[in-house]
Design goal:
This protein is 71% helix and 2% strand. It is an all-alpha fold.
Length: 307
Amino acid sequence: MLPDNLNPLTFIVIKKNIPNFFTCLNLLCGCIGIVLAFRGELVWTAYMVGIAAVMDFLDGFVARLLKVHSEIGKQLDSLADMVTFGVVPGVVMFKLFQESIFYYGWPEDIQGPNAILPGSFGDLWIDFNNPLTSWQLLLPFSAFLITIFSAIRLAKFNIDTRQADSFIGVPTPANSILICSLPLVLFTGNHLNECADGGYSGIGPLIKFWKNGPDFLQQWIMNPWFLLGLTLVMSFLLVAELPLFALKFKNFSWKDNKIRFIFLALCLALLIIFRQLGIPFIIVLYILMSVVNNSVNRNKRTSSDYE
């Protein structure tokens, strides 16, 4: 029963735009994330990307639940994803590159008393009068390969009819979550180290594991060549012809969603055990499970052809 002052046409318009409301929240989170990233607040940027990913899931879920679809909704979703899951990870990687170059490559004579410590994610200003080599000046801009290939990925998605129920190539939200999880890994590692030094034992066996972990993590993640390798690999995977399952539930039966339920259960286990540290493992797990699932399905099809 509709309210007396709400005619059916207005109700239909409101109903059709509910998914777009969640899409706009996704876009808003992306805009805030960019501002926070340029202010050096990469941990908060990661949180905004996490919220945006939830909004991105909800807009599609609500659209299927309400059985409302529109061309403008499809285009708006891609535009919002371009900002949140294309521009934001590029900016985050750019800031990480800047920090990593300071950590590994800047000459000792320019590390003054106001130098920014690695892992602080503060503003890092480049003085072109300082004796920086060309790679130190230019390498951070390679981060925007992620943004470029995210745009290509989203453009391909909009015209590729094969991706209605699955993905070809790593989805931009998964790529963005992986990259934005790096500041969280550093932050969590340092927190666990402080807990270990203080004798706090509430985290259990993780304390022993991470007792000397943050130094190793910082040296690994803040290595500019690791960041360059990650940038190139993820840029390639965004547009690779790699089939990946999608978290799109048309129903909640075990038979139709076995791979999704197993993946979500493993995600929960990783988050409980490792907290923020489990996020990059989740993205790697997603890719590996998709590869295994594709192999199993291919073998089933091959077996059925011979029967």
